[in-house]
Amino acid sequence: MEVILPPDVEAKLSRLADEQGRDRGSLVVEAVERMVDHDTWFIAEVEKGLADLERGAVLSHEELGQRLEDRLAQRRTA
Question: Which of 1, 10, 57, 75 is deepest in the core (most CB within 10 A)?
């Protein structure tokens, strides 16, 4: 696979690689791995939320507000 980066991004990548004493390729691989891992996690979380909606496992506006108030009160007393 070949990736063509805009010159400004390539310059930033080179500078970062030099600062970290690493090669540019390893930084690119790490960045892609992080993005793929994050997107995989995010999609799974969205799917969980959609499944909750389908089951009716949701909070009303008032219930959510009360939970937030309770948590804030706990932090104030902690």
Answer: 10
Where exactly are the structural domains of the chain?
Answer: 21-77
Q: What pTM value is reported for the model?
A: 0.71
Give the list of residues 6+ apart from residue 14 with CB closer than 8 angstroms, or none: 24
Higher pLDDT, 36 or 78: 36
Closest CA to 28 of 7, 14, 42: 14
User: Residue written as tokens 């009360």?
Assistant: 66
Q: Which residue type sits at 57?
A: A
User: Looking up tokens 């791995």, which residue turns up?
Assistant: 33
